[in-house]
Structures are given as structure tokens and as C-alpha cells.
Amino acid sequence: MSQRPPAPPSLQELRKEIDAIDEAMHRLLMQRGDIIDRLIQVKQTQEVGSAFRPAREASMMREIVQRHRGILPLDTVESIWRVIISTFTYVQAPFSVHADISASEPAMRDSVRFHFGFTVPYVAHFSAQAAVEAVAKSKGDLALVSATSSRTPWWLELEAHGAPKIIARMPFVERADHPAALPVFAISRVADSAVVTEVETFSVRVSGWNAEVARALSPLAEIVAVPDTAFDGAALLVSVTSATSIDKIRAALIDAGASVRSTALVGSHATRYTVPPTGPKS
Predict the structure, then answer these.
(1) What range(s) does the Chorismate mutase domain occupy (predicted)?
(2) How many CA atoms lie within 13 A of 115 on its CB side?
(3) 156-176 pLDDT, tens per residue?
């Protein structure tokens, strides 16, 4: 006589399992907080200023995406970890996010809340220039500005030694249906050891800027351009990947008929992680 299959667990048993997992996650978060408290004492982070670690964050997010599976949306997982990272960074060294809302206030607010949650103070500005200037005057704040367009060349403020720099580009996880899809640069001061340099960003000032020059440059790098009519030129923010170099950018500009007046490194960030339409795992 064959044995009957075991009865499926009851709803009460499954809910007990969920409750146990919820308690374990909460206890782990509190344990993480205890470690951060010890970290503050060891590293004296409060005296140093910024506690941002862009290279470490990029590595963590890649690992999260690569191991994710199941029915829980990746959006939820990414946002949870972003808020955890941002909140514990804030606990180490309090900071505010200065956001340029000139392009789209709702989209920028979505980006800030998705990546930083509600604990980190949010300060709105009506221009990228104002957001960058606020960070330059702060000890360890962060600015978010559009990564694809600008009315003013705010990145010129990042050229000076000791000025804040671009430290990240978000969203880090790229996908067609991202709930906080506005492309933004994060700008702050961080320790040299915490920087990730997979993509370098340069401020390039040129003369002889026109549509033909722009077309010649577009296959080589992502560019934000603000025309400068006084010099018949433009201020460019150029994102250079490992596939090219700033020397190639200069050469392409000259070959297209432009003159390079100056170049300056104004930051760097991690290569974005692109998720295919089918998702990271089935």
C-alpha cells in the first residue's frame, strides 16, 4: 500500500516562518548598527567628514543583482539595500542631499527617495549650479544633478583642487522599467581610497563647437554640452570609459575642426549594471 504524500503546511505554519524571518532580518539590521557604531569609534568618521564609499557600494550592488532570484521584484531589493547603505552612511557622518529640481521635481524626488530614503535630509534647488555650490560649502553633503543635460556648465566648479567631484551615476542598475530612472550624477567629497574610476568624467572647454563636432564625438563618449557664445565654443562634460581615453577625445575634437582650450578631471564613477529585459535570473 502506497503512502499518502505529506500534507502541505498550514497557513499558520507558513506565517510563523515569515515571522521568524522578519525577526531575524531586524536583529541583523540592529547587529549591523552595532558594527557601524564600533566603526565610528575606530575610524573617527565624524571628524573626517564624508563617509561615502562609491567603490564598495558599486561592488555590493553588483553582487545583489547577480544573486537575486524569485518573485520579489529587483526594484524592491535594490531600494531596500540603497536605503540601508545611505542610512548607515548618514549615521556615520550626517549629510544632506542637495537636488537640482530644474529638469523635473517629481522625477528628482523619486530618485532621492529611492536611493536615500526619508532619513537623509532632502534640500531642493532650482539649478544645478546652486546644488553644487551648496555642497562645495558643506563638510560632507551630496548633490544630485542631471547626467544628460544642463542649462549651465556647473561642472566648472569641480575643476579646482579640493573641490567636490562626481562620485557616482545613478541609477546604477539600468533597466527599462526602473522606478527612479532619471539619470543623475552624485557629487561630493570622498577619500581617494573610496573612489571608483571605471568611468572618468572630464570638464573640456573648446572653441569652434558646432553640430558636426558634436556628431564626431558622440560615438566615443557620453557628453553634456553648454554652448559658450562668447568664445564660439562650449563647455563639455565628457564621460570617458576604458574603451577610449581623454587623448582620443582631444584628437577627435581637433580632427573635427574644434580647438581644445582646457581639460580637467572632475570625477569618476562605476560602470552601470545593465539588466536584460528577462531579468538577472529566472
Answers:
(1) 5-96
(2) 30
(3) 999 999 999 999 999 998 888
| Residue matched to cell numbers 542637495 | 98
Distance, CA of 131 to CA of 158 (rounded, Å): 12
Nearest to 245 by CA among 228, 230, 263, 270: 263
Answer whether 252's CB lies under 8 Å from 149's CB: no
C-alpha cell at 90: 548618514
Letter for the amino acid at 280? P
For residue 227, the cross-strand partners are 234
Which long-range contacts (C-beta less than 8 Å, at least 24 apart) are formed by 119-122?
119/83, 119/86, 119/87, 119/90, 120/86, 120/87, 120/90, 120/95, 120/96, 121/96, 121/97, 122/96, 122/97
The string of pLDDT tens digits covering residues 202-242 is 999 999 998 999 999 999 999 999 998 776 899 999 999 98
